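Incident review: delayed structure delivery

Summary: a single-chain prediction request sat in the queue longer than the usual turnaround. Root cause was a stuck worker, restarted by the on-call engineer. No data loss occurred. The affected request and its eventual output are reproduced below so the record is complete for anyone auditing the incident later.

Affected input:
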Amino acid sequence: MLNNIRATANEAAINGKLDDANTDVKALVKDAQSLLTAAAALTGTKADDLRERGMALLDSALGKAGKYQDQAVVKSKELAKTADVYVKDNPWRTVAVAAGVGLLVGVALGRK
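Output delivered after worker restart:
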């Protein structure tokens, strides 16, 4: 029971971080797009400066995405280990839950 609560809390934390990462990356990409669009209309040193800033923003977005991906991999491995321990400690309960879920999915698909 305590493991389930921990797994649920970890999953919620991961989902929150992924949502934050998604929002951050989208904002950075939009900013970079607007800078690059503005740079396309300009010429000379201003255009070069805007292009450089846009590329820097895109590089930043890629760096953040990579960082969040690494964190997600670490958390998913932790959750997998927690699930493995739970299944090994409670094999019959796990079988019963899996059978129940299978039955519900079968009933839901059978109605369509």
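Verification: Helices lie at 2-41, 45-89, 91-111.
Action items: add queue-age alerting; document worker restart procedure.
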